[in-house]
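Table S5 (text form). Sequence records supplied for joint modeling of the two-component complex.
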Amino acid sequence: MRRSRRADAIDLSQIVLFTLAVAAAATVLILVPGVAVAWCLSRRGWRGRMLVETLVSLPLVLPPTAVGLGLLLLVGRSGPVGGWLYETFGIDIAFTWRGVVLASAVVAFPLLVRSARSAFEEVDPRLPAVARTLGRGPLGAFFAVELPLAWRGITAGAVLAFARALGEFGATILVAGNIPGQTQTLALALFQQVQVGRDREALELALLAVLLAAGSVIVSELLVRRREKTLAE
Amino acid sequence: MASFFEIDLKLHQGSFGLEVQARLGETAAVLGPSGAGKTTLLEAIAGLRRAEGRVVVGGEILQDSAAGVFLPPERRRLGYVPQDGALFPHLSVRSNLTFGQRRPSAAGDVDFATLVLALDLQELLERYPRHLSGGERRRVALGRALLARPRLLLLDEPTAGLDPLRARKALARIRRVRDEVNVPLLVVTHQPEEALALASDVLLLEAGGVRGSGPARQVLRAPSALARESGQHQENVISARVVRHHADGGTTEVRLDGGEAVTIPHTPDLTEGGEVLLSIDAEDLLLATARPVGLSARNAVAGSVDELIRVGTSVYASVGPWLVHLTPAAVDELGLLPGMPVWLVAKTHSWRVVAG
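The corresponding structure-token record, covering 589 residues in total, follows.
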């Protein structure tokens, strides 16, 4: 950070690695809860399903800055969760890398859930039922039948979530600020470079963003296509 | 008869209600039109659908709402075979088969190799379900259920969607496996001949309620059942052994369990000496009071009238295992009375192979 400020230049590799690490961490963080929520939403006939559905979709339709503000109120040092974490463990979330991961995770969550949910809905409900009659418990049937059959949809959703996390800006800047070397992701650095009039650096960053995003969308497309092919056979 | 299988279930789902009370033997069929609730009943018995009431199989209480007992599907040990098999698409045939496999614990329990041979699956083991035909899928599903050593096999419409040849092969195979593995079974079907081919007891289901239950022939030939099915064909299903084929004569000679020789249309794929299940429509049987001569019909079976069942403008004569459809005029003309010796006459081409 000191070096970059002195040189007044950006550390491209540090920014790219940090961005990838944050997006990966966010994706890993939401994988298990996302799949669990998606599975629950794919079942019909329980109370509160609409409510959960709405809550899960909110980050997708709200302005990311509103999501960020909400998170900041929650995990800032004076917020209920942030205050408790700081007092008990001495852990700060707001304005640290943890805040970046959290903001990206929350915003990416609905993408994973939607994709995983439709993957679960595509699984013939008789298959887990038959697995049960063959001696597997509900969890056994889930891991032996539903999860493998929904796997491609879940993977595609995870890649989409990862791509969304890569480009996260609005929520991140509110929760974690834009601290070079600490919370600055590619999207945040690009914004900063534009603001200080470094168009060339900004353009470089934008091109990098294109590469990363295109790469993950292509991976996601390939996975979805493979899944459709399997289903069509 | 001690009942092997006891159900007393109530289930309501939206406007559809199902209420079933029955005691059935080791092989039973649930017979009824589509929409009667047959599959729903199977799912309730398997524990896949919550219904109120009792289910007892072979002395084991699987469910008893009054006592607060409800075994989950995985502890009921019922071999459920859904209509199209419902194989796991991501697993090979081999992995499908072994999915619920329990080790044979007693002599007579099936092992993998025996079952693969009995169901003719050797060539399919490494294939995936999407590359199997409908009939093959069902065979795998049957094997998968049997390897879990179920206390009762639940078959849902085992021949639906199969062409007649495959359907009779499938029924013959199920009969063979049933006897080899010695597993009790409950089959759901809308075809009376399929019920008769696989089961000795029948539960008639209609619009979510029981219309009759008990020994198959008795239930299917009750006057009320005949009246309800009026206009529908009453099939006589009877077991026989193949004697020999007469390709030139266009016939296959079989011997009925009663010992009578009968010719059926030439069916070369039946093995000589093998068991075959035949059916003939009650409409297609002629009844004579003397041994017929000079007829083209090649099959005459002697018997005596047990009962004359009048249903509307029809009369059904019950002659041993046979049911013959007559008009009241014919009954009067022949002076038919219970106890009278008669001959049943059938054309070769009136016989159909149900299983074999």
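Note: Residues 4 and 58 of chain B are 5 Å apart (CA to CA).
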